[in-house]
Specification:
Two copies of one chain form a homodimer.
Chain A (H helix, E strand, L loop, with lengths): L19 H15 L32 E2 L2 H6 L6 H8 L9 E3 L4 H13 L2 E6 L20 E6 L6 E5 L4 E5 L4 H8 L4 E2 L12 H6 L17 E8 L2 E4 L12 H5 L8 E8 L1 E2 L3 E9 L2 H13 L6 E5 L1 H6 L8 E9 L5 H13 L3 E4 L9 H12 L4 H4 L4 E7 L4 H23 L4 E10 L2 E11 L5 H18 L15 H7 L2 H14 L14
Parallel strand pairs in A: 2-4, 3-4
Antiparallel strand pairs in A: 1-2, 5-6, 6-10, 7-11, 8-9, 8-10, 12-14, 12-15, 13-14, 13-17, 16-18, 17-18
Helix pairs in contact in A: 8-10, 13-14
Chain lengths: 532, 532
């Protein structure tokens, strides 16, 4: 991992970003899409030029060693990585910067910060890598109920504490970033194999708190199933669940905290189920005449019980935008892997399923095909894409994604209605036709997880309103058509209007009651997921 | 399904039971074990001779059509199927018989009974098939906080309401018994493939409420993963979760109710993920010189990612007791199945894993091997075994089982300490050496679910105390050694002392708070899982 500090604006660390070629490729697509050579481009304010309020609280001497109100720290913890976050940061709006950032080194220091926050009526925002795309990490404090905002950055809890080779599990601290986690597991021949797009700039605790979606397209789609046990620090004390391969003793305690988005406590460590490093791989790219042909093939593969590690499909426009194909065909990126045996029979059967739905493989024999061809190009685009927003936003371009899940019986009409509603909203909000594309990130026997991207030509001065109008239309459409407001990006604050409709009211009441027990003052991440 | 009514004492329906041969086989094992030809055998009281208190409440006229205080109904809902249940019933102790049994036909009638129960301060016990082995279905009412006991038998909610062939899912009512459920799915070519030992006398709602363990030895071990969405009637209203193949929107609402054991609400219907009927099968029985050799082979199979549908191992004594082998070898019953493709490659690889750990297959080629040989004998014994207790208990024999889960790193010492503690307790409680055997029911990459059976020669007049002393020693040992008090039998009331130690205190507080929201009067199944 680079030792450079994280950017206060943009993806990753200072000095990182797209190459000139990558940048030109992405901008070229936008120039073609909107038939223009130039974009009205705004300057992003420099760190030293940003206005910042005087801190409303000062940590007591006992906490001073790991707390700071330095300018950089406060600014770098003000926003997540959502589209509105980029716009607000570009506009110099750092109103939600925390007053204090704490970097606790152990559970006792987490508890001490909670005690202090309670005493000064501050909100407390748990912070992993800060890659939330739904308003999950920025403190929004009213100054009335919450007098100040403290952010708890877990980066110092970054160790793999213990590895159990026999059970293939490891005890890992919650603030461990993806690369550091894998680097510590590698000497043991093991891997978590959880690679969300944010992998480099997100943490184990963040993944668990947000039900992150990972590497595996099927079977182990979310981090949830890899959690063997948890330790969670709450304002009332520590919750530690028992390390068990399976249990039927009451409702799962782990499942209450998985997806709790920092509202119930701070995940300080977890025993995680691990995978062997793959020894056998089989990969292929398959072309389909249409996205729905590809989707039907996915359904066949998912229902055949083949468990591909990768089974992503891209619609023709998405395939074109990422440089994978020419825009005339849909693409499936298919992969199997195993640490134990060659998955060739499963790949062969999956390709039969594809052929039944008019799929033609590009290549299917090279064992390292996952790095090559359409699959390789797409994989690279997937990892590099988050770097685009820091120059697209200043160019007045609106690009965002939203993801959901739906059962197969409703998928095709669901897709069409969500796509149409979003396209219509783009035209209405911006006056210019935009583009909405779709791919699948994860698949299930009973339905896919469709992932939509949209592109609009916005106007400086109106970007937030334009974005919100499009987001509202998309959210309304997918909730009306039976989907979930998020499959793996989490709820945060931005998805609350739809989550509140999707979630049964009595479940919300139960969750609020549980929160009152664990966080009686309601200090933890107020506004995220539930109101305290 | 037979139209005979369920027994008030014993397993299954009136007129059913073991054949004379089966009975002699089972009793023969006990005669040999305790070196005796006869057992001191007590008569079980007849239905008409049992004393029963006058009902403490009478349903209002609006509920009379589906409520009853008939003698048979009250007696048949007094007990579950635990060992102490059999002893109490044999002793004529029906003190916990409900005053009224309601057979609601729809959700409105469930709500109406809840309203009435609230008004008369009665407890309300949801009742599926009544096969609880841990004190989950008998009303225990103090007469002070709870003035009376009402049991809600869900058997009239027995329909498969809708089948979605595209997504392979069905909407099924909570009171549907196993055979009725499969019979309704069969014309569609689909199956839930959830076959707990209680399959014939348990219901979908009961399986979900208790996190039942089913047919699949790996991957889909519990019913949990088959639940797509739920409808739950609570005293505060109906909770309906959204039908989704996967979601990351906050903590899973379904997971709060899965395993809630009737304390939060009544599961009226659920969308369940289904399986195709298997077209391909591969089965084998494998002999091992020792149980730990077999366990190491299971670990290899589980960690290879082969997903056997069956991978049960029996220790030598368990194999002997069920007539599967001669007592000198441990047995693995191994099976693969698929509705899509031949699982031969997976079976071949699993047999290699077995060979690495001194396993020798008995047979591995016949596609219907799962019905034959050791596997077939064991399967039949497994299904018939519950019929034994109704004659073993009157013979003063104590036979019971307990099941747990543990990670692989601790398994061997865990097994030895739990087995030794249980054997010691049998000797201390009864003065006679007994027998403790072990098998695996379900397996995970990070550990097995060991299932212990024990056999003791008890003494009439002391059976409950003797059983409790053995149960206490077993529970203490497995909790001390890091296991779970239940892997799939549920908590009920009988497992409370250990569940309360296993479950984090703050999770219990959160769960009680959730219950207060959904069941403010605490009417639902008081004493099960949590105190209201």
């Amino acid at each position: 991992m680079s030792s450079a500090r994280l950017k206060h604006y943009g993806w990753g660390r200072e000095g990182e970003g797209m190459t000139t070629d990558e940048r030109q490729f992405v901008l070229g697509r936008y120039r073609a899409r909107f038939a223009t050579d130039t974009f009205d481009t705004m300057a992003v304010p420099r760190l030293e030029d940003l206005a910042l309020r005087t801190p409303r609280v000062t940590p007591p001497a006992s906490l001073a060693a790991f707390c700071t109100s330095e300018r950089y720290d406060r600014l770098a913890h003000a926003h997540g990585k959502s589209y509105p976050d980029y716009v607000r940061a570009m506009l110099g709006d750092y109103d939600c910067a925390p007053d204090v950032v704490a970097y606790p080194r152990n559970e006792a220091e987490i508890s001490a910060v909670m005690d202090w926050a309670g005493g000064v009526s501050a909100s407390l925002t748990p912070f992993g890598g800060g890659s939330s795309v739904c308003g999950g990490v920025e403190p929004r404090v009213d100054g009335i109920r919450y007098k100040a905002a403290i952010t708890l950055d877990l980066r110092n809890l970054s160790k793999v504490v213990e590895v159990d080779l026999t059970s293939r599990a490891a005890l890992i601290e919650g603030g461990t970033y993806g690369p550091a986690l894998e680097n510590q597991l590698k000497p043991h021949g093991l891997s978590l194999r959880h690679f969300p797009q944010s992998f480099e700039y997100s943490t184990l605790g963040g993944w668990i708190a947000t039900r992150s979606g990972g590497h595996f397209a099927s079977l182990y789609t979310h981090i949830d199933d890899f959690v063997e046990s948890l330790r969670v620090v709450t304002p009332r004390g520590v919750v530690e669940t028992r390390r068990l391969p399976g249990s039927g003793a009451g409702p799962s305690p782990d499942r209450l905290f998985i997806g709790s988005e920092g509202t119930l406590g701070v995940i300080s460590r977890a025993w995680m189920r691990l995978q062997p490093r793959p020894k056998f791989r089989s990969g292929a790219s398959v072309r389909f005449p249409s996205f729905f042909d590809a989707a039907r093939a996915v359904r066949a593969v998912a229902q055949a019980g083949l468990y591909p590690s990768n089974c992503r499909i891209l619609d023709p426009q998405e395939a074109f935008n990422t440089g994978v194909a020419d825009g005339s065909v849909a693409i499936m990126v298919l992969g199997f892997e195993s640490g134990d045996h060659a998955p060739d029979a499963r790949m062969a059967r999956a390709l039969e399923c594809c052929a039944d739905h008019r799929g033609t493989p590009e290549q299917a024999d090279a064992s390292d095909a996952h790095r090559e061809g359409a699959a390789g190009i797409w994989r690279n685009a997937f990892i590099r894409m988050p770097y685009a927003r820091e120059f697209l936003t200043p160019a007045g371009l609106i690009n965002d994604t939203f993801e959901t899940a739906i059962t197969w019986d409703r998928f095709e009409s669901f897709h069409d209605s969500v796509k149409a509603a979003t396209e219509r909203a783009i035209l209405e909000a911006t006056g210019v036709s935009g583009e909405v594309t779709c791919r699948f990130t994860h698949i299930y026997p009973d339905g896919p997880a469709p992932y939509f991207s949209f592109h609009a030509l916005g106007r400086h001065g109106a970007l937030l309103e334009q974005w919100q109008a499009i987001k509202n239309a998309a959210g309304d459409a997918l909730i009306a058509a039976g989907g979930t407001i998020t499959h793996h990006h989490a709820v945060g604050r931005d998805h609350r209007p739809w989550y509140d409709r999707q979630r049964p009211a009595l479940f919300a009441a139960a969750l609020r009651a549980a929160k009152r027990e664990l966080d009686p003052q309601g200090m933890l991440n107020p506004g995220v997921l539930i109101d305290p």
